[in-house]
């Protein structure tokens, strides 16, 4: 831990700052929505005096969110939400070039991660930007005295929203939480287009396999699953979907995919991708029946979707065969290949979502923080959707950046669409 620059930080190599700054600037070329918000924030200072602790993937895109928050007047610190997603040069640049305290090291162990969570809470945040709700959960369990400081939290992921709902159900979520994950301009772009492209990017970088002709099993047909299945199909893969929800299952069927239980899919799949946010979606009985050399990876959230503990117990040997690629030699004589240690393969083996995708997600985060501050004291505890007008404003800013115009209703149409007395 270093104390230069008048604040503490914990990054791997501060000398990487120049490289990180160059990459941050490159990402900014594809993030015009957040840039427009940052420009407005710099003038209006809607976050002046607000302490924000952000737990996010520390990437070039996240850097622009942190910069926008600071432009808005926030006193922000940033920690890593995932040990394999941190870009060390970006962390260094945020410290040196932008004066933002960062606590993130690529490959950090669990003890370091939990120490950084404590550091985020030591900042005594008024707003928590979370990715999986670990910081909020730690606050609720261990820092009750700080609850009075909290204006609210914003949550980026499906997994985090599930945890927040459970907290509210148990009566321990005593402040408002903005459901950034379910904003249209977030999940359309981030989950469908972002996860779809970046997951396959990570798989290809890790393995250099040809996807055309492969049988790819996608576990889960939420927005992430839809995007992943769509992109895999577009590259020539034969895609199977596994689901527990009958509505999503029939949707997958109508979209042209085979649907079957994982027990059946395990026997025919070449590549397995979990995108459920749940635990042990692929487990011992599935490993038992997989083909020799079957590959498994996760693009959901935590590294528990694949039961790696059971796989390790079944293995006589584990060896690294490529970067981010481990071969488990089973006592049965077969092998199973695990990508990215079962963590998010798009971040462990690649660079995560394209900047243009995260532009929309982080625009939602920035405006959700502004919304919490503007409505301080008037929002009830529990989950709150991003207001429709905020969602539409983000879409409008994106269209402006793309040079695209849309129609507007005529006065006659306004009257017709809002009336019940006018007939057809």
UniProtKB/TrEMBL annotation:
PROSITE patterns xrefs: ADOHCYASE_1, ADOHCYASE_2
Compartment annotation: Cytoplasm
UniProt-listed InterPro entries: Adenosylhomocyst_ase-like_sf, Adenosylhomocysteinase-like, Ado_hCys_hydrolase_NAD-bd, NAD(P)-bd_dom_sf, S-Ado-L-homoCys_hydrolase_CS
Enzyme class: hydrolase
Reactions performed catalytically: S-adenosyl-L-homocysteine + H2O = L-homocysteine + adenosine
Gene3D superfamilies according to UniProt: Adenosylhomocysteinase-like, NAD(P)-binding Rossmann-like Domain
Pathway the protein contributes to: Amino-acid biosynthesis; L-homocysteine biosynthesis; L-homocysteine from S-adenosyl-L-homocysteine: step 1/1
UniProt keyword annotation of Nucleotidyltransferase present: no
Cofactor comment text: Binds 1 NAD(+) per subunit.
Binding, substrate: 59, 131, 156, 186, 190
Residues holding NAD(+): 157-159, 191, 220-225, 243, 278, 299-301, 346
Matches recorded under HAMAP family: AdoHcyase
NCBIfam families, alphabetized: ahcY (TIGR00936), PRK05476.2-3 (NF004005)
Purpose: May play a key role in the regulation of the intracellular concentration of adenosylhomocysteine.
Protein known as: Adenosylhomocysteinase
Organism of derivation: Leptolyngbya subtilissima DQ-A4
């Amino acid at each position: 831990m270093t104390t230069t620059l008048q604040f503490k930080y914990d990054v791997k190599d501060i000398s990487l700052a120049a490289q990180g700054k160059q990459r941050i600037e490159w990402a900014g070329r594809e993030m015009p929505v957040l840039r427009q918000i940052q420009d407005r924030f710099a003038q209006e200072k809607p976050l002046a005096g607000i302490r924000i602790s952000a737990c996010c993937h520390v990437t070039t895109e996240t850097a622009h969110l942190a910069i926008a928050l600071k432009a808005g007047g926030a006193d922000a610190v940033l920690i890593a939400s995932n040990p394999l997603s941190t870009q060390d040069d970006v962390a260094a640049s945020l410290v040196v070039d932008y004066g933002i305290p960062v606590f993130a090291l690529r490959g950090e162990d669990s003890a370091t991660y939990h120490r950084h969570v404590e550091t985020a809470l030591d900042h005594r945040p008024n707003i928590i930007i979370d990715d999986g709700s670990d910081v909020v959960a730690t606050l609720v369990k261990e820092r009750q005295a700080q609850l009075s400081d909290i204006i609210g939290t914003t949550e980026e992921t499906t997994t985090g929203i599930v945890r927040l709902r459970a907290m509210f159900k148990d009566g321990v979520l005593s402040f408002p939480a903005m459901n950034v994950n379910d904003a249209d301009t977030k999940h359309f772009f981030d989950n469908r287009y972002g996860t779809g492209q970046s997951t396959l990017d990570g798989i290809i970088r890790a393995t250099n396999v040809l996807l055309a002709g492969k049988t790819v099993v996608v576990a889960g047909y939420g927005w992430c699953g839809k995007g992943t299945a769509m992109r895999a199909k577009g590259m020539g893969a034969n895609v199977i979907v596994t689901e527990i929800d009958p509505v999503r299952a029939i949707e997958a069927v109508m979209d042209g995919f085979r649907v079957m239980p994982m027990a059946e899919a395990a026997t025919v799949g070449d590549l397995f991708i979990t995108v459920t946010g749940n635990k042990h979606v692929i487990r011992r009985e599935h490993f038992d029946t997989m083909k020799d050399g079957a590959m498994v990876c996760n693009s959901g959230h935590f590294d528990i979707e694949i039961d790696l503990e059971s796989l390790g117990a079944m293995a006589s040997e584990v060896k690294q065969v490529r970067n981010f690629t481990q071969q488990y030699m089973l006592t049965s004589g077969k092998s199973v290949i695990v990508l990215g240690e079962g963590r998010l393969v798009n971040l462990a083996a690649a660079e995560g979502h394209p900047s243009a995708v995260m532009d929309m997600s982080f625009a939602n985060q920035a405006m959700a923080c502004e919304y919490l501050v503007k409505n301080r004291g008037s929002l009830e505890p529990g989950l709150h959707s991003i207001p429709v007008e905020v969602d539409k404003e983000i879409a409008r800013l994106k269209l402006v950046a793309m040079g695209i115009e849309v129609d507007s209703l005529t006065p006659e149409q306004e009257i017709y669409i809002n009336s019940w007395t006018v007939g057809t």
